[in-house]
């Protein structure tokens, strides 16, 4: 796959990615290298990485617990302390080897340690490959509120090796597929049609185009003042649902993609009510997503708590909940204000 040039870094693929990483190491002459992993990627991904990575700099592994529940400032403090204890300096490099949690948290840790050290993203899940590793967003959750603390910071390079996807469960592949569906609905219908029409689809074939889309959007609007907001489609309700299931003791937590899939159904419904989004396309979206993800039970008594979490979404301005909605596929409208009764209707529509 051909490399993709972002504003200040490049996304490199497969063997070429490891070559570019070696070139970076030689050029920058780092004093030490720290590899951030979780317990899953240490076992499943670290051995492959080390087979393809050589450096004369000393290497240290920093391991954190896997899961969104650990994507918080307390984990950051732990990593900052380990970096300090192991003698990391401003010429050290942090390599993030993992999924969205590792990528988001690791970039934030690197960008704030000693006012910023270099980092390299090596995403190992479909979600982190097509979304979290690209675009320069870093951060952690505040309690159950998603990505409330963070900053924009770019890696030196992103290295995408699809071989790491073989370590994932089918559920994790489905989770990442939600972000590709989002790109299809907002930006390039070809991606949505490929997923909708091909049950034997090799999802790796859609990776390059998905990263291209995110890069095009971020290149035009790096700080999310306009176009980049389309990347939030499905995420306004989706993040609230994800947070609610994460904090509920009597519910199984959802993956990010599962929650965003619910959000896309709800926000497509809202689009039909407020912008006249075609009902046949709404049905098509709901049917496609349910076929992939199945149904999650969202009880009427859950609605109020989900709405409360929605009010804390980081994209809100002046107390207003801001949505990205669709006039039709590939035709969006930003900063839409939605009445609470329509939001509740959308949750009921999902439940039908």
From TrEMBL:
It is an enzyme of class 4 (lyase). GO terms for biological process: aromatic amino acid family biosynthetic process; chorismate biosynthetic process. SUPFAM superfamilies: Dehydroquinate synthase-like. Pfam families: DHQ_synthase (PF01761), DHQS_C (PF24621). Its cofactor is Co(2+); Zn(2+); NAD(+). Keywords: Cobalt, Lyase, Metal-binding, NAD, Nucleotide-binding, Zinc. The keyword Lyase applies. Its EC number is 4.2.3.4. Residues 62-174 form the 3-dehydroquinate synthase N-terminal domain. Catalyzes the conversion of 3-deoxy-D-arabino-heptulosonate 7-phosphate (DAHP) to dehydroquinate (DHQ). This is 3-dehydroquinate synthase. It comes from Tenacibaculum adriaticum. The lineage of its organism: Bacteria, Pseudomonadati, Bacteroidota, Flavobacteriia, Flavobacteriales.
């Amino acid at each position: 796959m051909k490399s993709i040039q972002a504003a200040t870094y490049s996304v490199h693929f497969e063997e070429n990615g490891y070559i570019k990483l070696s070139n970076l190491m030689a050029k920058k002459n780092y004093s030490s290298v720290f590899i951030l992993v979780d317990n899953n990627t240490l076992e499943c991904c670290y051995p492959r990485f080390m087979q393809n990575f050589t450096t004369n700099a000393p290497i240290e592994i920093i391991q954190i617990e896997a899961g969104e529940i650990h994507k918080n400032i307390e984990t950051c403090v732990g990593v900052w302390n380990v970096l300090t204890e192991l003698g990391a300096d401003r010429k050290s490099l942090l390599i993030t080897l993992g999924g969205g949690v590792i990528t988001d948290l690791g970039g934030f840790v690197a960008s704030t340690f000693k006012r910023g050290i270099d980092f390299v993203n090596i995403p190992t899940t479909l979600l982190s490959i097509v979304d979290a590793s690209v675009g320069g967003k870093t951060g952690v959750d505040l309690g159950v509120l998603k990505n409330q603390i963070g900053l924009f910071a770019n890696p030196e390079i992103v290295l995408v090796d699809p071989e790491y996807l073989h370590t994932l469960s089918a559920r994790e592949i489905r989770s990442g597929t939600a972000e590709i569906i989002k790109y299809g609905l907002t930006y390039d219908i070809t991606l949505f049609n490929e997923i909708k029409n091909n049950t034997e689809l090799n999802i790796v074939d859609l990776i390059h185009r998905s990263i291209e889309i995110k890069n095009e959007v971020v290149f035009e609007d790096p700080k999310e003042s306009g176009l980049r907001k389309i990347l939030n489609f499905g995420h306004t309700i989706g993040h609230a649902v994800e947070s609610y299931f994460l904090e509920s003791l009597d519910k199984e937590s959802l993956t990010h993609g599962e929650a965003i899939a619910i959000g896309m159904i709800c926000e497509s419904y809202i689009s039909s009510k407020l912008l006249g989004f075609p009902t046949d396309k709404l049905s098509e979206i709901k049917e496609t997503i349910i076929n992939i993800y199945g149904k999650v039970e969202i009880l009427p008594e859950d609605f109020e708590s989900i709405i409360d979490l929605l009010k804390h979404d980081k994209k809100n301005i002046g107390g207003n909940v801001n949505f990205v909605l669709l006039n039709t596929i590939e035709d969006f409208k930003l900063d839409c204000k939605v009445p609470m009764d329509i939001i509740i209707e959308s949750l009921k529509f999902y439940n039908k």
